[in-house]
Amino acid sequence: MTRADFYRRDRSQHPVPLSPGYKSTVLRAPLRPLHSVEQSALERSGPALGNTALGPLDHDLIRNAAQGGDALGERIYVFGQVLDENARPVPNALIEIWQANAAGRYAHVKDGYLAPLDPNFSGCGRCVSDGEGRYLFRTIKPGPYPWPNNGSDWRPAHIHLSIFGEAFAQRLVTQLYFEGDPLIPLCPIVNTIPDPAAIDRLVARLDMRNQEPFDCLAYRFDIVLRGRRQTHFETRPEGA
Amino acid sequence: MMIDRLKETPSQTAGPYVHIGTAPQSIGRPPLAGQPGPRVEAEGERIVIEGTVFDGAGAPLRDAMLEIWQADNSGRVGANGLFARCLADFDTGRYRFETVRPGPHREGQPAHVALLIFARGINLHLHTRIHFPEDRERVVADPDLRRLEPEARETLIATQEAPGHYRFDIHLQGANETVFFDI
Ligand SMILES: [Fe+3]
């Protein structure tokens, strides 16, 4: 059976490819219009990476690289629900994340920022959404860091996310930010997104009800992937 | 019945440190169990697809992540589809997939491999298709690709360097700018 197409990607909700304020886009953004084609069976399906057998600490960045102690920093949960544009939960979605440590330094050979590494933190995590599309990470809040763009620009605290839903058409890589961070409106990468309401949807919300008392704060971040077109066939009541 | 659709979460660049979360073995850390790499294990004729992503100044992208998704050797997708992920080489920018030749697609399309490109400076991943030079006539006749100028269509066809060994370079800008799709 051929499954339904996905809604066209609403590019007004995404960053502008050529955004000179973010200098790396100048030589890397394609300049010709994208070529519109029918979605094929390839794009309507995707790898079942949600079936990957994960390690028990893959979602716990406080412990998953520990060398005898917890990672340093503000202990947080990052959690939420993966939905599609039809507001249906997306179960079995693979979410991979990477982030800087509490001082703003990445455990990466190419990061030369002077802030210290944390021997108990690698900044790598992953999890799979459950039957209701819910996911949870435990980590530390990453620090902001400077980068050479317009002189020394500063990235707001952020976590990078890579998400696989059920189809290749839903593939998404993004970054989440933290409510109340004054660096968000100053960030050239954030500002590649023209729509302020779209930027707001990348901001994780402090959620005091879901804190772990005397342990962890909690930030909620819901993720919306593309949804399939509703066909009359699908919505016709049984027996009609 | 009309319902209020949610809006897709906006994309942001993968940035230069994508390796940490998607291929820790590429920066000297232990690999994660089951995490996809650049080699597909499946039945079929083994092929290699390699190449380089070039920016508008002709410099190779040394920090790109590429992902492929294709039919298996009998043309089946869905649960039988094949996926692989490759991080560009830090020194040369080269990527290299070892996979199997995809079987003929059911929809009358020439066999192809869907390719996604993520990198610093790419705000929303790019989507293109790798076709095989043996299928050139079908590529030319494909209803989706017929509308392209011949030179542009040529950017979607790999070059055979040896039997079963294909080169597919990607040009983000310039006279040879690769065709990217709005899927
Ligand atoms: Fe970052």
Q: Ends of chain A: how far apart?
A: 21 Å
Shape type of chain A: globular
CATH topology of chain A: Protocatechuate 3,4-Dioxygenase, subunit A
**Unreliable segments of chain B (pLDDT under 50, ≥5 consecutive)?**
none
CATH superfamily (homologous) name of chain A: Aromatic compound dioxygenase
Secondary structure category of chain A: mainly beta
Q: How many separate helices of chain B?
A: 3
**What is the count of distinct domains of chain A?**
1
User: How would a textbook summarize the main sheet of chain A?
Assistant: 9 strands, mixed
Characterize the quaternary organization of these chains: heterodimer
Q: What is the third-level CATH name, the topology of the domain at 44-171 in chain B?
A: Protocatechuate 3,4-Dioxygenase, subunit A
CATH architect. name of chain A: Sandwich
- Tell me the helix content of chain A: under 10%
Q: Round the Cα radius of gyration of chain B to an integer and report it.
A: 17 Å
Largest interface here, residues on each chain?
A-B, 85 and 75 residues
Domain Intradiol ring-cleavage dioxygenases (chain B): 42-174
InterPro entries (chain B): Intradiol_dOase_C (IPR000627), Intradiol_dOase_core (IPR015889), Intradiol_RC_Dioxygenase (IPR050770), Protocat_dOase_a (IPR012786)
Keywords (chain B): Dioxygenase, Oxidoreductase
GO molecular function, one term (chain B): protocatechuate 3,4-dioxygenase activity
Plain-language structure description:
Chain A: Pfam families: Dioxygenase_C, PCDO_beta_N. Chain A: Its EC number is 1.13.11.3. The complex is a heterodimer of chains A (240) and B (183). Chain A has 240 residues and is mostly beta strands. Chain A has one domain (47-224): Aromatic compound dioxygenase (Protocatechuate 3,4-Dioxygenase, subunit A, Sandwich). In chain A, 4% of the residues lie in helices and 27% in strands. Chain A contains two helices and twelve strands; from the N terminus they run E-E-E-E-E-E-E-E-E-H-E-E-E-H. In chain A, strands 2, 3, 4, 5, 8, 9, 10, 11 and 12 form a nine-stranded mixed sheet that branches. The longest helix of chain A is centred in the C-terminal third of the chain and has 5 residues, at 196-200. Chain A is globular, with a radius of gyration of 19 Å. Residues 235-240 of chain A have low confidence and may be disordered. The radius of gyration of chain B is 17 Å and the shape is globular. In chain B, a hairpin with a 7-residue loop joins strand 5 and strand 6 (126-131). Chain B contains three helices and ten strands; from the N terminus they run H-E-E-E-E-E-E-H-H-E-E-E-E. The longest helix of chain B is centred in the C-terminal third of the chain and has 6 residues, at 136-141. In chain B, the strands form two sheets. In chain B, strands 1, 4, 7, 8 and 9 form a five-stranded mixed sheet that branches. A four-stranded antiparallel sheet of chain B has the order 3-2-5-6, with no helix packed on it. With 183 residues, chain B is mostly beta strands. Chain B has a domain at 44-171: Aromatic compound dioxygenase (Protocatechuate 3,4-Dioxygenase, subunit A, Sandwich), CATH 2.60.130. Classes of the chains: A mainly beta (240), B mainly beta (183). At the A-B interface, strand 1, strand 3, strand 4, strand 9 and strand 12 of A face helix 1, strand 2, strand 5 and strand 10 of B. Strand 1 (35-36) of chain A pairs parallel with strand 10 (181-182) of chain B. The site of fe (iii) ion has 3 residues of chain A, from strand 8.
